[in-house]
Amino acid sequence: MDVSVIIVNYNTKELVMPCIRSIVTYTCDIAYEIIVVDNHSEDDSLEAIRTEFPQVKLIENDTNVGFGAANNMGMKVASGTYLLLLNSDTLIQNNAIKLFYDFYTHYAEGNIGALGTILRDKNDNIVHSSGRYPSMWRTIHDVLSGYVERGYLIRKRGQEMYCYDASTPFYMVDYITGADLFVKASVMEQFNGFDPAFFMYFEDADLQYRMGKPSGGYQRIIMKEPKIVHLEGRSDERPDFSTARRMQHETSMFYYFRKHSKYWNYLLFRILYFVIRIPIVFDSRLHTKEKRVYLQFLQSRLKV
Question: Which InterPro entries does this entry report, sorted A to Z (predicted)?
């Protein structure tokens, strides 16, 4: 088996079915399998997959174990020499899997860790596809800049997207988003897959930070030829802005920085982050109860 495609599903029937259809429609000239790891969905996803795609391997969890842990479970039953970790809210639009495979095998001596592509939304606009390693001080800067300049984060994202228009057919990045991560199975095994302590968010950056350390030395490369649409965020059923999403994101953020930073630097960051987030009490998008819950969450981070 050349490639195992692993998709984590959680109540995304309306997304995962088109995702699988796109794989079947466009993938050719390569031996592949599809594995769907279901995190205890309640929307008849499994029934729909069994009916339309009986060839798909299904792993059924009794609870939502999170994104990274679910992918790890899929890797354990995968037969492919290579893995494509694909979000359920993506759509393949050309023979992307074969393109990833050909590139990886062609540059087999190049110490490649992972491949990804420039993701686009349904309107063909470039969306988040890769990034720099997270930084505590850049995070502080971004929060403060967001207070001072309306639309700062949108402008910053626009600058990030501009980098994807490089003239070269591929280029190296710090990390590739977990929405489309093509990697050799033996490389994932070497790094024990995703750290399951990340329920959601930052698990992709953490994995590739470990890949890129001197002890790993693997490259992460963005290709331009594979075409994949990412309906960004659709696989997370919560509203675009919610206290729950923010707290989950920041729980993973704190864990990432604690794991990869010196203790005293991390301690200082925790204190500063709490202070600069106090203006949340003036955020009109949140109810009073939500503000209180969020501030209590930040206070609890000071004790960790």
Answer: Glyco_trans_2-like, Nucleotide-diphossugar_trans
Q: How many whole angstroms separate alpha carbon 59 and alpha carbon 103? A: 30
236 belongs to a structural domain: no
The stretches of 169-287 forming alpha helices (DSSP H) are: 185-190, 203-212, 243-260, 263-277
Q: What pLDDT shows up at residue 98?
A: 98
If you average pLDDT over residues 274-280, what whole number do you get? 86
Reference 5, options 236, 180, 175, 153; nearest CA is: 180
pTM value is: 0.90
Do 246 and 294 form a contact (C-beta atoms < 8 A)? yes
3-state SS class at 83: strand
Neighbours of 52 (CB within 10 A): 12
- The total number of structural domains that make up the chain: 2
> Is residue 177 in a domain?
yes
Residue 56 lies in a domain: yes
Give 269's contacts (C-beta < 8 A, 6+ positions apart): 136, 137, 139, 140, 257, 261
Higher pLDDT, 161 or 222: 222
The whole-chain average pLDDT of the chain stands at 89
- Alpha carbon distances (Å) from 142 to 31, 112, 127, 152, 249: 44, 31, 19, 8, 15
Residues composing the chain: 304
* Residue type at 241 in one-letter notation: F
